[in-house]
Amino acid sequence: MDQKIRVLVAKPGLDGHDRGAKIVARALRDAGMEVVYTGLHQTAEMIVETAIQEDVNVIGLSLLSGAHMTLFRDVTKLLKQKGLDDVIVIGGGIIPEEDVNKLKEAGVCGVFGPGTHCDDIVEFIRKNVKK
Amino acid sequence: MRLIVDTFEYGFKEVPRWNTISISGYHIREAGSTAIQELAFTLGDGVEYVKWAIKRGLKIDDFAPRLSFFFNAHNDFFEEIAKYRAARRIWAQEMKDLGAKKDRSLYMRFHTQTAGCSLTAQQPEINIARVTMQALSAVLGGTQSLHTNSMDEALALPSEKAARIALRTQQIIAEESGVTSTVDPLGGSYYIEWLTDKMVEETYKYFDRVEKLGGVIPAIEKGFYQREIAESAYKYQREIDDKERFMVGVNKYTMDEPIEIPILKMDEEGEKRQINRLKKLRKDRNNSKVNRNLDNLRKAANGNENLMPIILDCVHSYATLGETCDVLREVFGEYTEPAIY
Fold first, then answer.
1. Is A117 within 8 Å of B241 when comparing Cβ atoms?
2. Complex ipTM, two decimals?
3. Helix (H, G, I), strand (E, B), or coil: what is residue B49?
4. Which of residues B271 and B184 earns the better pLDDT score?
5. Are the CB atoms for B266 and A102 separated by under 8 Å?
6. What is the pLDDT of residues A86-108, one digit of tens each?
7. Residue A72: its chain B contacts at CB < 8 A?
């Protein structure tokens, strides 16, 4: 049997909106993945540390505060520094269209805004995960 | 709880016209609760605050008139109106049961904000229509004050123009529509009255469940509220995903067209400006006075006295919010929510 895909759902920075993060966490779990949710107010260091400890394949970042450019980039930079090339990063939240490409350049391989169907996230992860 | 009761006590003695706290259901609803859960959990919190204040020895008629509430205005028009009506009815009854004699203690005054989570990133202009309906439900339900959301809030922080349209929306309701000239205009409608009764009944069922768990605080510690809310939030999303619930522009009447409204860009210099202001403040203030006040706060937090005057000393000497809260965190510890999803 295939090993289960392991996902870390994380909330970086000062942002208390975690409805979406929790819904995605549950949808991924229902789709058969192993999911760890960090809780609120995480630093990039905490997120990457948890990703290492939990040996995840995917980090899903959620941010609705407007600070995604800084905080998402902090996470992808730190991952690179630590040599975690096999972990993919996806993101979601309130993210203007024009930031999406900049985030992709920074190493966030998928960005899912409001109105996303949960199944689309599941499918994206299955297709893009590096195992 | 201690800080809440300190606020009631200080408010009554020192700033008697101040609205001491705003007991919020908004965030509960935004986290995905149903209307009934919003009602039950918010009022449950409110009653709990009052009970703690009475336990401290405060008289209910001294502080209850200054309490206020904060509710969400979501999509289901009549359900929202019934929710506000049910809230007032339950609150008046609960205050009476806790010994309130003054009419003012029974009044529920509340602020309403339209539901941010109901807005769509797709076809953002149609959010103006959503916000109008939501705001109208709050006014017909008797809200004292109102926040209308901007159409672009599923995309970014609001632009000046979007915020102005949101403001004009409530000005149209207030000054053109005529709906504000009647108190409780839907009172007596068979449907609204039936729905109000039903929401009152459902709220009391939740009160009973919470009571069985040992009260509000044990219920929070056991993750009861979090589990109930997470369950409702997930169900709601699945209904949208499965098209059992429609969201115009998302799973019905969709269009593939670029967004044509202006989007606010964040000034990245803003962060630096604020950091510099803070550095200057920390340099220019009397730091020995700040430290003395923070030490006093630490001592007081370890004892029983009302912390409000001491917190105000800290504020007057320009201790920052972070520094003041750090002292309280050091003494009280910090709550971490159980992650339930």
1. yes
2. 0.92
3. helix
4. B184
5. no
6. 999 999 999 988 899 999 999 99
7. none
The pTM (predicted TM-score) of the whole model is 0.95
- Give the tens place of pLDDT for each residue, B28-68: 999 999 999 999 999 999 999 999 999 999 999 999 999 99
CATH number listed for the domain at residues A6-128: 3.40.50.280
When pLDDT is cut at 50, 70 and 90, the band that residue B339 belongs to is confident
Per domain, the residue ranges of chain B are: 2-241, 269-332
* Fold of the domain built from segment(s) B2-241: TIM Barrel (3.20.20)
Question: Is B237 near chain A, with CB under 8 Å?
Answer: yes
B153 with A94: Cβ contact below 8 A: yes
Rounded Cα gap, residues B36 and B31, in angstroms: 14
pLDDT of residue B336: 84
- Domain boundaries in chain A? 6-128
How many residues are given for chain B?
341
**pLDDT tens per residue across span B121-157:** 999 999 999 999 999 999 999 999 999 999 999 999 9
- Count Cβ–Cβ pairs < 8 Å, chain A vs chain B: 66
Q: What angle do CA A25, A29, A31 make, to 5 degrees?
A: 120
Tell me the sheet residues that pair with A111. A91
**Is the confidence at residue A1, as pLDDT, over 70?**
no
Closest alpha carbon to B209 in B51, B48, B44? B44
Dihedral-angle region of residue B249 (phi above 0 means left; psi in -120 to 50 means alpha; beta otherwise)? left
- At A41 the three-state DSSP class reads coil
Triad A26, A32, A37: Cα angle to 5°: 40
Residues from chain A that touch B155, judged by Cβ atoms under 8 A, are 94, 96-97
The sign of the dihedral angle between the CA atoms of B172, B177, B181, B186 is: negative
